[in-house]
Amino acid sequence: MRDLKQLVKAYDVRGVVPDQWDENLSRAFGAAFVQVTGATAIVVGHDMRPSSPSLSRAFAEGAAARGADVTEIGLCSTDQLYYASGKLDLPGAMFTASHNPAQYNGIKLCRKGAAPVGENTGLADIRELVQSWINEDDTVDVPSVDVKPGVLTQQDTLRGYADHLLGLVDLTSIRPLKVVVDAGNGMGGHTVPTVFAGLPLDVVPMYFELDGTFPNHEANPLDPKNLVDLQAKVKEVGADIGLAFDGDADRCFVIDERGEPVSPSAITALVAVRELARARANGEPNATIIHNLITSWTVPEVVAEHGGKAVRTRVGHSFIKQEMAETDAIFGGEHSAHYYFRDFWRADTGMLAALHVLAALGGQERTLSALTAEYDRYAASGEINSEVADQAAKTAEVRAAYGSLEGVKVDELDGLTIAGADWWFNLRASNTEPLLRLNVEAKDSAKMAELRDAVLAIVRA
Predict the structure, then answer these.
(1) Which segments constitute the Alpha-D-phosphohexomutase alpha/beta/alpha domain (predicted)?
(2) What angle do CA 289, 290, 295 make, to 5 degrees?
(3) pLDDT tens-digit profile of 22-57?
(4) Which of 85, 98, 296, 381 is catalytic?
(5) Domains of the chain and any CATH numbers
(6) Is 98 designated active site?
(7) pTM exceeding 0.85
(8) What sign does the CA torsion over 184, 185, 191, 197 have?
């Protein structure tokens, strides 16, 4: 019998189609989602992967069989699904495997108002219920229930999504900008033309054709090799900025006019300044900004300098969203280029972050590299993965080597973080793979490299 713990992760459902799951199992997830949440109506959308339409429809059928009315919004980005969940006030399901290769697919689930569904907020219950419906021969037998079946209807939410975002950022008076956008054959090719239409932008499109086989490069901008084409095009056409979206277009990476990546920490700081200014103008001084523990020290420094309160959290969207709800934070950012906005139901939207960057750039005359230089104060290693058989033992070795040094601070909010006067590093174990993830930051490149190499020597010994 198949074990759904291999398919249902901490924050979503994700696996290979049809080896790990198919339409029958998707139908069961639809039924279980309705049963666990008690929803009487839901909204469902999907990305451009070849398996997405049939998996999405099967989920909708399973939900309807449990009595829920289903609004199908069809092709959409993940943040467009969050918009629909928030605007319609319905629980939602987005069929996507984000940046994973073509053979993968998955489901991101939320309650009404785009509130996250993770392992501790319903996903484990859904998994266990579906598991109980799987027979020894791996067939799926969903018990029938005596309810009136729900109705499936279709609705287009793209224009409403675009209008909502454009109502949060004023781009009407910016100077004209040349913008190269790499959609990676993902859902950015669906959303960008509508959101950017009518703005003073000369858009140079790259890989806008929706193609879930990803013929040009993986739709994962976190991997530097997938930014090479965009970096070259920005320099070739003399663009002011480059934007790269991942497969489901909920993350956005930024390239400056030199073809150099702008760190997500710098983007977090830039957007935080803008959101804090907007909050002050609306009579909300000292607003809260969320950042995860791997973002640069620059972020809390900038937040404090602009009168805000910075709150540090664990890595992961469920932790960010929970902290945002508890603190009423106006904005949150992660090192992985997920950006969260209170005015977007506390959900993550790379598109709204991109609009903020365009507004900031177009509202003054400096280049993007000059604009973001003040938000780039330290040298960072980026995330470095090491395959390790015993993650706990290696982490303990690193703690023993650095935790007793004079003047250092040690915390275990998420993995192991050790900080000195002008440096810090974090070592975290992957939830799904035998990996340790290292992030290092220091006052200068030499110190960062020295510390990075010394910690890696222990981890990889």
Answers:
(1) 6-131, 160-259, 270-378
(2) 115
(3) 999 999 999 999 999 999 999 999 999 999 999 999
(4) 98
(5) 4-158 (3.40.120.10), 178-259 (3.40.120.10), 264-375 (3.40.120.10), 379-459 (3.30.310.50)
(6) yes
(7) yes
(8) positive
